[in-house]
Amino acid sequence: MFATLRRCAQVVSTTSKPAQNPFFNKPATSKTSHRKSPLTRTSVDGLFQTYKPVTPGLRHLKRPLNPHLYAGRPVRLLTYPLRKSGGRNNTGRITVRHRGGGHRQRIRIVDWKREEGGIWDVVRIEYDPGRSAHLALIKRRGTSESAEASLSVDSQGRPGWAYILATEGMRAGDHVQSFRSGIPPDLVPGLNLELPSSKSKSQSDSSDNEDANTSSSLALGIFRALTLKSGNVLPLSLIPPGTVVHNITLTPTGPARLVRSAGTSALVVAHETAEQSPSPTPTLYTQVRLASGEIRRILQSAFATIGTVSNPLWKNRSLGKAGRSRWLGWRPAVRGVAMNAKDHPHGGGRGKGKSNKHPVSIWGWGTKGTRTRKPGPKGPKNSNKLVVKERPRGVDRRKI
């Protein structure tokens, strides 16, 4: 009887099996709907994903909710493999502590210069294991939809696809522009971006000057409405004070160096004018307040990207267990008081005594707020002429 039932079940299974779909095993993307796991939960504020503590490592695990991230693999031609060194130099000595192991990674080639103009469409937002912020895959408008086929330069020698740092709120379908190679002359009719002359005008030309100023102000307003959008690259001289920026360059031709971490942003404070300098050919700067609170002078010919860096909730994540740090390539950090006397200035002694020592690093430098830079021309005072106001420290920092 059991053999007969088994044969019947086999016949039913073979006859009811549907036709094989070649796209059935297609890897999941962000566009496909995923069934929510019974172990996942959503925090009260709806910003984080937590888990049912069926294991100790899941009890404190907390991740920001990013349903807009692409679930597939990156564009392979825009990546290269990361060769790990374990924190050791060419002689095999450890020069960077707490590094080693970790999952295999590929480094994404990010376009930090954005010298190519034109309109670029955002294809998707991706996760990058090498940084805290997210990346945006963009393609030049008019290129083919296949990234693998259009990564090579076109007839004009221009690339068709690139990775850039995603801004907060950027999604697939948006478009960005870079004005680093110059402002198109036909963007806004009557636009004059030259600085006004300080020479006095005659009274006969006052009415003409008023009309010209009105038309130029209107053209400037239209230009700012078209260009001051999240993800666009502009020179600092054309960004009005009070604008939030990131990806700031230090030179007119260099890559972005400042404000690149997740959730960070800088604020354009003021623009210096030629009348404020006694030199006939002054070098103009723009005062920018960085994320640390420092106000710094940056060349007006340098460039910045409008908006805030994506993934602002990254700082509130919780890994949940030590193993996740190992997956990320971080080895354990041992306290100095737990070492021997030969291994750390805090080591040795009986019990947990600190021996009345000032807190220092493993190399003997003062830590926990101690200023270690030497005074003088190369010290904290007058060491950098471009710093208008230093970042707040100590009590001033707690007041923020």
UniProtKB/TrEMBL annotation:
Domain Large ribosomal subunit protein uL2 C-terminal: residue ranges: 228-366
Positions with biased composition (Low complexity): 197-206
Segments of skewed composition (Polar residues): 13-31
Region annotated Disordered, chain positions: 13-40, 185-213, 340-400
Keyword Ribosomal protein: yes
Pfam families the record matches: Ribosomal_L2_C, Ribosomal_L2_N
Family of the protein in this entry: Belongs to the universal ribosomal protein uL2 family.
Record protein name field: Translation protein SH3-like domain-containing protein
